Amino acid sequence: MEVAIVTVGDELLAGRTTNTNASWLCERLHDRGVTVERVTTVPDRIPDIADAVTEYRDRYDAVLVTGGLGPTHDDVTMEAVAVALGRPMEPHDEALAWLEADGYSRADLTEGTTDLPAGARALHNDVGVAPGAAVEDVYVLPGVPAEMKGMFERVATAFSGPQTYEATVVADEPESALLDRLEAVRERFDVSVGSYPGSSVRLELSSIDATETERAAAWLRERVDGVENGDDDRA
Amino acid sequence: MEVAIVTVGDELLAGRTTNTNASWLCERLHDRGVTVERVTTVPDRIPDIADAVTEYRDRYDAVLVTGGLGPTHDDVTMEAVAVALGRPMEPHDEALAWLEADGYSRADLTEGTTDLPAGARALHNDVGVAPGAAVEDVYVLPGVPAEMKGMFERVATAFSGPQTYEATVVADEPESALLDRLEAVRERFDVSVGSYPGSSVRLELSSIDATETERAAAWLRERVDGVENGDDDRA
């Protein structure tokens, strides 16, 4: 399964906020065997959000959208998703009932709080007020991290793919010195290999076969100078 | 000036790495008056990188690309940019001369280390080996944060726009309770307003007129319950 993530917010594009929502979602999806093909940040503008959703629905199996839910003028994500799907916005009775059960009165709620694209499944917000939505292949989640995470867990089972098995080998050599062994390990084993230089070089092996991944990692560990070989250091 | 940032790397899409390069670049560009319209993360694949560069060159004034420079099989960014620009890759004499001056011998360097799209201006890497490139409206920077930051400073003056003046008001009220005053401040003053809820609500005002921004912020501060008004808290 291939998906795209659209993160909405001027504050991300101004560099005031680091996009930890995207890395959290990517990690959860990756752990479920899902390939994230794109993460794109767009401004709080309806045409920009709608264009990104439309483009990625076309290309991938699902689109997750986070941010821009709520009562203020810059919260336009739900309306943009409705535009992308060609559906009108309408009040969602179940979302209203949830909020009333949580102690909100209809009169207190900002107008439009429970409006969702027609036919959407409302997603309850355990932490905040604004509901999310699942509609066709689009999942709309809040931007506040605690709200986003809680809501994602409600839909997590919709995302799945083949389990992959990963191993990390940390090499204490310059990346350029490792080229022969990287080429050899890719020829000998049916694994994909990523190479991430920093103060040392983190080599990430993965395949859909646990044994193959482990054999490749063992082969590499014997052949590179490693300070922390076997340490699955993701810092 | 409107730009897009393309960050390249499977490790970002797998959630192993948080995209702090993007937030750093966004902040630096924003401080220079440049509007970042898109930040997109793509996998280490030539067609994906080339498509993103092509699409954003079409729409915006410049594209910054970071990540995927270096000697290993998954470092394909420079070639992808050459594809997007329809230019061949060729050895760059000045980049080679820099590396030789830094103590590398041509024989030690991995083949292709100093290959850049034909006609590119090479950007020296103060921290690592792989050179960057400026070619037409595309700027190609490394992914290792220290290398990326150093190289961006070499081209920073290419990015500019109107100075904007910002002020932050932190409100200790629910976002939904603030709607009347948010509407009023937007009507009274020529400012744009962003509203970012968390444990409190951060209201970000901005305009191209310092006095207007300050007047709007002062007006709001008198009218909202604020725990830390005036504190420019970007946490």
Structural overview:
- Chains A, B: It comes from Natrarchaeobaculum aegyptiacum.
- Chains A, B: Residues 4-162 form the MoaB/Mog domain.
- Chains A, B: InterPro entries: CinA, FLAD1_M, MoaB/Mog-like_dom_sf, MoaB/Mog_dom.
- Chains A, B: Pfam families: FLAD1_M, MoCF_biosynth.
- Chains A, B: This is Competence/damage-inducible protein A.
- Two copies of one chain form a homodimer.
- Chain A is an alpha/beta fold.
- Chain A folds into two domains: 2-158, Molybdenum Cofactor Biosythetic Enzyme, Chain A, CATH 3.40.980.10; 165-223, Ribosomal Protein S8, Chain: A, domain 1 (2-Layer Sandwich), CATH 3.30.1370.
- In chain A, 35% of the residues lie in helices and 24% in strands.
- The first copy, chain A, is built from eight helices and eleven strands.
- Chain A has helices at 10-13, 20-31, 46-59, 77-85, 93-101, 145-155, 179-188, 210-223; strands at 2-8, 35-42, 62-66, 89-91, 115-117, 121-123, 132-135, 138-141, 165-171, 192-197, 201-207.
- In chain A, a hairpin with a 2-residue loop joins strand 7 and strand 8.
- In chain A, helix 2 (20-31) packs parallel to helix 6 and helix 7 runs antiparallel to helix 8.
- The longest helix of chain A has 14 residues, at 46-59.
- Chain A is elongated, with a radius of gyration of 22 Å.
- The two termini of chain A are 27 Å apart.
- In chain A, 50% of the residues are buried.
- The model of chain A is unreliable at 229-235 (pLDDT under 50).
- The interface between A and B is large, with 58 and 58 residues.
